Amino acid sequence: MENLCLNVALLRRKVPNLTTAAKSVGLRPATVSNLCTGKIPVGRAELRTIAALASLAECTIDELILKGEKVEMIETKIKALDLFAPLAKGGTIGLVARPGMGQLVLLSELFFRLQKEDYTTVLLLPDGDYPEIEDVFQFIDMKVSSIKEAYEEISAKGKDVNIAFAADRSHVLTGDIIELQTQLNNIGMNNVTTFLVDLKGEVVDEDMPYGPLETLWHFDVDLAARHKYPAVSPLYSTSSVLEGAHLDQNHLTIQQNAQKLLRRYRELRSIVQTRGIEKLPDSEVQTYKRGERLEAYLTQPFYVAEEFTGIKGLSVHLSETLSDVRKIIDGKADAMLPEHLAFIGQLEMN
């Protein structure tokens, strides 16, 4: 089947307030968001939904749907991200989290890693007083205070330099981010990967807090409360990289099987907490324990947190992550205790 995906960049430019616009024509914002990130493949969408989006964007359906386009993945070597919601190069990434769930730590870690890959990191300073953002400063090459300055500094770098750009949601609400992306698009700069955070922690209560996204990282309050970092939800985070033929079939199969296991583990965990593991049938005990091992394996020590955790930061190549996750799902790690899998790199089996 021909590979199809929505032209998310066009939607961002033409329909800045997509949440309100979608509701006005009878579309559910969550459905539109899932189409943008690839959680719902374009090929499975109702024609009326695609037609309504094309009407909102004042474009043809052919302009709205990209055929045969491949969304390139940036391999972060962070297990949970690469497996469940890969970073789309040149796309817009939204972090959905309440304060204290680790979104700025993750942003710092990503910028640290991207700098090692010769990315130039740029931060648009937020309006208001947010002292916590200063923790990110040491991983920033350029701090800018306005959209005009951001455009000047980024465009001066040229098309041959990869840019990682971060901004607070306040600049999304004013339309500044749309303006910047439009200006950069007009001069053919497709090398800017944009990270959007919400320093106020309000985005968790909205359907499309940032508008259309290529990648959504939704933080999980339960994982954060149990210090399972990075606390990025494997069930609600997603990426357009996962859509259709963008992803290697082996990756997609393992990703889906891992989600299935973790979803069932979450259900069983609520039973175990209230009634005890002895109330589970033997087959479900095995599922529960494998889910517990997989959840532990997906934690990872970060380089930027070494002085606080005392644990050396680690990177894991995607191929290693896929191999390890398959082993855990298939039961080849059943002899290992979950605590021995927490905050490790690659799986080491005797």
From TrEMBL:
Q: Which UniProt keywords apply?
A: ATP synthesis, ATP-binding, CF(1), Ion transport, Membrane, Nucleotide-binding, Translocase, Transport
Q: Which residues form the ATP synthase A/B type C-terminal domain?
A: 246-322
Keyword Membrane listed? The answer is yes
Task: Write the signal peptide boundaries.
Answer: none
Q: Which SUPFAM superfamilies match?
A: C-terminal domain of alpha and beta subunits of F1 ATP synthase, P-loop containing nucleoside triphosphate hydrolases
Subcellular location field: Membrane
Q: What is its main location?
A: membrane
Ion transport among the record's keywords? yes
Q: Which family does it belong to?
A: Belongs to the ATPase alpha/beta chains family.
Looking up PANTHER family in the UniProt record yields: ATP SYNTHASE (PTHR15184), ATP SYNTHASE SUBUNIT BETA, MITOCHONDRIAL (PTHR15184:SF71)
Protein's UniProt name: F-type H+-transporting ATPase subunit beta
Q: Which organism is it from?
A: Cytobacillus purgationiresistens
